[in-house]
Amino acid sequence: MNNARSTLITSPLSLADFVARLAxxxxxxxxxxxxxxxxxxxxxxxxxxxxxxxxxxGEAPRRSAARFKPLSYLLRQALAFEDYYRVxxxxxxxxxxxxxxxxxxxxxxxxxxxxFLVFRGYTVGSFVILLASLAWQFYSAWLPELGFRAFLPAxxxxxxxxxxxxxxxxxxxxxxxxxxHSSFRRQRLLVMLLVGALATGxxxxxxxxxxxxxxxxxxxxxxxxxxxxxxxxxxxxxxxAVEVAWRDLVRVRGVQGDGKxxxxxxxxARAALERFYKHDEAFAFDLWASPRSHPHVLVLYAQSRxxxxxxxxxxxxxxxxRRPDALPSGAFSAMRSAADTTSAVGMVWDDP
Length: 352
What we know:
By secondary structure, the protein is α+β, with helices and mostly antiparallel strands. The chain has helices at residues 12-38, 42-57, 60-67, 69-87, 93-97, 105-108, 110-120, 124-142, 148-182, 186-208, 217-229, 231-249, 264-273, 279-282, 329-335, 344-347, and strands at 260-261, 285-290, 297-302, 311-316, 319-321. Strands 1-2-3-4-5 form a five-stranded antiparallel beta sheet, with helices on both faces.
């Protein structure tokens, strides 16, 4: 590779490239952390991190892999990454930022296709790990109410999101590290890594300090599908959970300003939900009460997406409410429902 240096002061192009990469390292962690919370993409993060680690260490991992065969299977993809960029310098940064928009160029062009496979290709070992992970997810999170037909779209969505994350965010980061390390721009690399670490730390702190935990897209899909598959059992579980929360709520004087219920009532309701729903699915449900000072209405609900009716049960003075028009309008604002006319009976519950 060409190791000629350029200073940020004397080269406007070098300065512009550095600023663009720095801005990307500052902003990308927000999207990466959010994607990791919403979708199972941690495998892609581990793969790229391992590849960069092997690249920076140089020949030591290769020698170890040559002596220990199982390690060679584990590091095969990372070693292919190191082989590729040892003899080829990365393309300009703008190319990787626009990478998803250049499809299908990087499948049609032979050299670009090689680089794509370096990032997205599967070795035998990684493919076995992927299959084992999917099998465990299916067994632990989907069965017994949900079968393989419901699980398959979730797998395809996960793989698509993981690939998009790899191409749009991880490739610009990885190729920047490769370029600065191989061209001996170590000070710039340290600045990039420091900015990325600070942005990642800030994002993680914000996520961990959220009032409500982030519930992944697939978890919310499982809630919807599991409820639809066993409507009567789901109704009984939700009714029991909201009744537990009601008993806790009558012991306190009021709720927060927006009507959302926190603390003991919410914790007990989620614990009761686990009699039917999985542990992570219980966190998709929230409580809302009205009026705030002395609540008479309590709603247990899972937030809905646009044009998708929410899943909810409600109590008014301790008795179940099934008519939407009997609930305050704020309840449906909390559920983010498209309309206040959503009928719980017609949506998920069997008639009594």
